[in-house]
Amino acid sequence: MSSKITKIAAALALTTSLISASAAFAEDTIKVGILHSLSGTMAISETTLKDAMLMLIDEQNKKGGLLGKKLEAVVVDPASDWPLFTEKARELIDVNKVSAVFGCWTSVSRKSVLPVFEELNSILFYPVQYEGEESQRNVFYTGAAPNQQAIPAVDYLMAEEGVERWVLAGTDYVYPRTTNKILEAYLKAKGVAEEDIMINYTPFGHSDWQTIVSDIKAFGEAGKKTAVVSTINGDANVPFYKELANQGIKAEDIPVVAFSVGEEELAGLDTAPLVGHLAAWNYFQSVESDANAEFIDAWHAFTKNDKRVTNDPMEAHYIGFNMWVKAVEAAGTTDSDAVIDALPGISVPNLTGGYSAMMPNHHITKPVLIGEIQDNGQFDVVYETAGLVPGDAWSDYLPDSAKLISDWRAPLSCGNFNTETKECGGKGN
Amino acid sequence: MTLLRALLVCLVTLVLSSAAVPPSMADDLQDTINALADGSLKDRAEKVDALLATGDPKVVPVLSQLADGNLYVRKADNRVFLTESAGKNFTLTDPVSGEVIPDINKRTLDKIKANNSLRRQIRDGLSLFALNSPDPAKRLEAAETIFKAQDASALPAIEARLAKEQDPEVSAFLEEARAGLVLSSDASESDKLAAIDVLREKGGRQVLSMLTAAAEKGEGAVRDAAERAVVAIERVLAIWEGVQNIWYGLSLGSVLLLASIGLAITFGVMGVINMAHGEMVMIGAYTTFTVQQVIQSTAPGLFDYSLLFAIPIAFLVAGAVGFVLERGIIRFLYGRPLETLLATWGVSLMLQQAVRTIFGPTNKEVSNPSWMSGALDLAGLSLTWNRIWIFFFALAVFGLLFLLLKRTPMGLQMRAVTQNRNMASSLGVRTPWVDAFTFALGSGIAGIAGVALSQIGNVSPNLGQSYIIDSFMVVVFGGVGNLWGTLIGALTLGVANKFLEPFAGAVLGKILVLVFIILFIQKRPRGLFALKGRAVEQ
Amino acid sequence: MTEETNQMTSALLYLDDVSVSFDGFKAINGLSLTIEKGEMRAIIGPNGAGKTTMMDIITGKTRPDTGDVLFEGKMDLTQHDETEIAQAGIGRKFQKPTVFESQTVRENLELALAGNRGVWASLFYRESEEEAAKIASILETVRLTHRANELASDLSHGQKQWLEIGMLLAQDPKLLLVDEPVAGMTDAETVETAKLLREISKTHSVIVVEHDMGFIRDLGVKVTVLAEGAVLAEGSLDHVSAHPDVIESYLGR
Amino acid sequence: MISAFLFRGLAGRIAWVAAAIALIGILVPLSNLFLTPEHALYVPDYIVSLFGKYLTYALLALTLDLVWGYCGILSLGHGAFFALGGYAMGMYLMRQIGSRGVYGDPILPDFMVFLNWKELPWYWYGFDQFWFAALMVLAVPGLLAFVFGWFAFRSRVTGVYLSIITQAMTYALLLAFFRNDMGFGGNNGLTDFKDILGYTLQEPSTRAGLFAAAAFALCLALIISSAIVRSKFGKVLLATRDAESRARFLGYRVEHVKLFVFTLSAMMAGIAGALYVPLVGIINPGEFAPANSIEVVIWTAVGGRGTLIGPIVGAITVNLGKSWFTAQFPEYWLFVLGGLFVAVTLFMPRGILGTLSDATGKLKSLGSGKATALVQDPADASELRKEGEAS
């Protein structure tokens, strides 16, 4: 009995001491939380983003910090465990008192932490392309919404490659489901027949692609020009592309355009047999611009490895971080409300040679690039949208979402304003 | 473009008859080639057509290098060169004069980009050149490309070639290509019927779609013949599909077998619930990666044999880790199988993190050697080489292990110790060492599996986790402690999975297989191959 | 009632032409055996003669391929599992002493004590005075009173054997199957055990499987010799040890 | 009769621990709500939700200990029961959102709206009522455990075979719940909850209430488990664990014994899941991951199995360690955690509590009174050894 109580008391003491310890030297720095998985299944993608954030913070400190204070990164490991994301988000905000958090990769991790950011009124920058259908006051979406990635890619394939038959292959989770719903609606609106669309879902980490790839091959041999739109996620990509290469599916015959395959994913592959397959992003490492060259050099210097690649979510963090810095400077404080109000309208250079602006719906404007895989693991940009594409929180191609708009500026201040009922939904009581 | 193509075909024949090219034409050619560098990707298509239209054999290397991404323009004077990478710099070759300029810095050059449609255009266009190549293999390839491209304007070129062709195999292909084009043209009924016969012999999905189109558009005898051919081809395809499915199942089964065979030793024979088994596979895969890196930097010529080096090294590395694991941890836990689960789980976490720290968290590239790339086309089947190798490799590993256990003194000692430790020990067997070597053997085999699995999947710190559950299912399904059970179990589960996949989908198929295992264990609580009788109980 | 069935029902245990094989090996081959009420029977036989398999069949652990096994003339033992057979009144002691090592001697007996074995009954079970007295008397019988509150795992090998016999007594079965009760016992313990078994056989029917000839002699009961899964000879120990087949297959070795 | 039965559970050390948990369940929320942050005894919100989560983990570990520590059934799929309870609660919370979802649909949850579902699937009916959801929290895991156990125990699937098929069960459920077609929100699971029984989930007072509920549930589960373990049925459990066939030859219907305790344990695990969901604000298929279930086994082993208090200590210790290490050594915490598991198995095979009680020499007065934890599973051990022969 007594040992039990001592134990609990010790545990509590440990935690409180931890809190006070980290609070002790808090005063003269501005803290920035980094909430990316460093272990577990998502570490493969997220660790790079942690490094990128550390580099950005480091560079900002070299420039003299922010508001006369140094920035201090607080790194935690939510270990690809979604409830742990909730816990760690709360810890960052409540215990470490960070001013903003940069983090999350999967939709489910973002969904897990949303209530925490709302409750504790903090700021999250989310750097990954996602399914849209969300706009939250405390979250800034610096990755692509479906209209900034999927739709331009399909347009490109139709116009440039004359594709008439479509395979929509994805991992069975929300992002591919939603993207494919949007694409299906879009393709049908463009006059593609039902039987010319094949939709296929596979589980996470699917590794045996023999059947599906041969189905795709069979589907593509029906006489019409066929393309695959892949929303296959993470780990499943390497075996998928290896199978594509070995079954001899050439980009000239059946091009595959992917939304989740970037330089980082290609690093695990021999790309020689994959030349010509495509990806749609808002940034490629191969983009020629001064800002990008500078960024890549800094990255190689920071990681002490000149083989480390850069990718789209890193650019999103680059944009997001600079926007936050600018907004804090504009507001003169790191106070969440002030920064949230200052952010819309802020415009910072992106790495593709232009400017990206934060919009009132908390999404940003970006160019859409289509790249073809090269044998050196990089992409060649073969198409770029003429102007910047503003991110759309609510898709126009889903019936229930088409009537919603998002505008966090003063009079409306609503993430999901229903233009039919003229009401703001989901605002609690 | 079709018009251009027709023109081009005439030119090709023309050029082939004329021996030399006058110098003024060479200048023109130089300009046309240099023009490739200007303008956007879209404009480039016309320029490629223009080049093809010259019919000059010199455009062949230019265009194929453009398609391969090796065509560069010198910034200083906008001249286009063929390039070859030589260390950090390039060696340039002038496409017209053949002049060679070595050691040029990459920064002074700009790459001329190509995209898919351009590459396709070049491939189809060059196939007409290749049709008259002295190499029969190239002619064969060209005939195939023309068949796939289905461009009616190629018909005269094919017929011209067909008249001259000596090689019977190439002739057959040309006939098929011609038949395809005839069918969609407005040729006479008898020509079309003959074409249908040729195509029907060829079979395959593309022919099917051509014939289906012909049946829809055609009338009378052509329609009937096409419909009959469609039915016949569909029947053949259905059979091949079944065969293909069995192969896919066996191939998946062989992957499961490889993943679980080491576990059949450490868990099945020794009774250690080895949650770190997957990490042994991972170690094997990372060893392969390291071996390839070393070979690439020291002896790139040996790259194709990298796996042959990797197999013994992976065996030793994973075996050594297993040995240390057994000596350091497992040996204190014999007789407490469930405790081994906890300890090895801890070990697996540490090994994952160790790999993440050493190699980084991202995927590593392990390439297929050339003999494991591509596919073997066998009648209606397309079998990829890496899967074929892995299938036989899995069987070989199984066979060797089986012989080792049943036919060698080492195997005898292993079986003796696992069956009755005290008795074996009193007979003079050094049980601790046998334990250690048995565990090292199981781990080493898992390492070998890692070499093979690195050829089809990710090489990442999570690699082991993706195989561990399946491996346990296989060993338990087959019957713990029975190697045959593991073999049959793996192949059965593989085939079952692949037969469920087409109509249930990949996810539901896998769920059904799991449910099947659960129910099967009810029926046979000790797996597929379990001994009956008193010895097994108690 | 015909005379034949009458005779069958009078027998406590009745095995007729029972056979079972494992992977082609005939463990029991046409075995027939009858045990009367109140009888104590010793069963001997070389290793692999099928003694333990016979016990497995009687207690429902193994299903015979062919043959009848009747208990009290009416219960077909081949159709019931271990639990039902135990509840019907057949108790079994294993070759290797099997007691609940992590529980005390007293708890072991408490578990074995006759009574409702259902889940709810045992959840809300309270021990009556009568039951406590019964346990005390069994403790006395198996000479373990002084160790009643110790863990069974702390007992010596012989004491575990006795505890197991005690548990059988607590279970109060009609028929006890005792497999090698004196294996690993000292001579003194063996003599004590023989005494204990004779005492038990006054109120119970008993089948004893044993290798120890001296012990069998001490028991002084009818002996059945098994070999290769069938009965080789039956009778007094002197009778069977004179039997030429027995000498050849067992004693003569 | 029930109260007398439960009262029996309140003997010895258990009574003190139960009282301590109850006290924490009252004092922590009070301190959180009524003391000012400057006060020395103030418990911050962060700690309340963190420890609330730990309490539900402790309850889950306790339920596993009941089947593993006391009955020898090593379930590698207990996370499935936890997750099912969580889903039942999540469905209630989802229905409570009503028209406050982003699309404003009064009936359909958001994820159904944007995947174009037209009507609510039948299995979502009834979850708008708390009583129905509460019933399902018990019934769904209970029914699954009953059906699964009925088959498995009747067929005498034991030892590692049983462990592996429980793992297969949770793995199959994981894959099934990942499927968006199942109608449980796929990978994202259920989230964006607004309130429970009319109380807003984002209020500290609601969380304090949930903390109290978790403490109360843990306290009650501890008393019930203790009562079971101390009854004659508890002895039958140990008997089944140590010598299953002996118990069978004594006339116990071992499969009923196992089935009862497995089902009960699954239902309690369901309660743990149901309390966990409103505390963390999300339930998704990740909870079915086999690794999660293995972790529960590890908490139990670290704390000391077969001791009732052990799993509670283990769950809290390991998770506290995990929370701390992931913040302090984000790059290296897996080494520490992995090392901890190895060290515990090697040097503290009886877990923290077992080792403590060894040290203090109070071996026999632990947890269930006289019955101590026998760390070895003799049945399993001999089984596996024997099976070596089959090769």
Structure report:
The complex is a heterotetramer of chains A (429), B (538), C (253) and D (391). Helix content of chain A is 39%, strand content 19%. Chain A contains 13 helices and 19 strands. Chain A has helices at 2-24, 43-62, 82-95, 107-120, 150-161, 174-189, 210-220, 237-246, 263-266, 290-303, 312-331, 336-342, 399-402; strands at 29-35, 70-76, 100-103, 124-126, 139-141, 165-171, 197-202, 226-231, 256-258, 278-281, 347-349, 355-357, 365-366, 369-373, 379-384, 389-390, 404-407, 414-418, 423-424. Chain B folds into 3 domains: 2-120, no CATH class; 131-218; 241-507, ABC transporter involved in vitamin B12 uptake, BtuC (Orthogonal Bundle). Chain B is 69% helix and 6% strand. Chain B has helices at 2-17, 23-35, 41-54, 59-68, 116-130, 136-149, 155-164, 168-184, 189-202, 205-217, 220-269, 277-298, 306-328, 337-359, 385-407, 409-419, 421-426, 431-453, 463-478, 483-504, 506-523; strands spanning 71-74, 79-86, 89-93, 100-104, 109-111, 375-378, 381-384. In chain B, the strands form 2 sheets. Chain B has a 5-stranded antiparallel beta sheet. In chain B, helix 8 (168-184) packs across helix 9 (189-202), helix 10 (205-217) runs antiparallel to helix 11 (220-269) and helix 15 runs antiparallel to helix 18 (431-453). Chain B starts with a helix and ends in a 15-residue tail after the last helix. The model of chain B is unreliable at 14-21 and 532-538 (pLDDT under 50). Chain D is an all-alpha fold and 391 residues long. Chain D has one domain (55-209, 237-390). Chain D is built from 16 helices and 4 strands. A two-stranded antiparallel ribbon of chain D has the order 1-4. Chain D has a two-stranded antiparallel ribbon with strand order 2-3. In chain D, helix 1 packs across helix 8 (204-230) and helix 6 (130-154) packs antiparallel against helix 11 (254-280). The relative contact order of chain D is 0.17.
Large-scale geometry of chain D:
globular
**What is the terminal separation of chain A in angstroms?**
46 Å
Name the CATH class of the largest domain in chain A.
Answer: Alpha Beta
Helix content of chain D: 55-70%
**CATH H level of the largest domain in chain A: which superfamily?**
Response regulator
Which two chains touch over the largest interface? A-D, 67 and 63 residues
Distance between the termini of chain D: 53 Å
Compute the number of structural domains of chain D. Answer: 1
Largest sheet of chain D: 2 strands, antiparallel
Number of strands of chain D: 4
CA radius of gyration of chain A is: 22 Å
Strand order of the largest sheet of chain D: 1-4
- Low-confidence region ranges of chain A: 1-5, 16-26
What form of chain A results from the Cα inertia axes?
Answer: globular
The proportion of residues in beta strands of chain D is under 5%
Number of distinct helices of chain D: 16
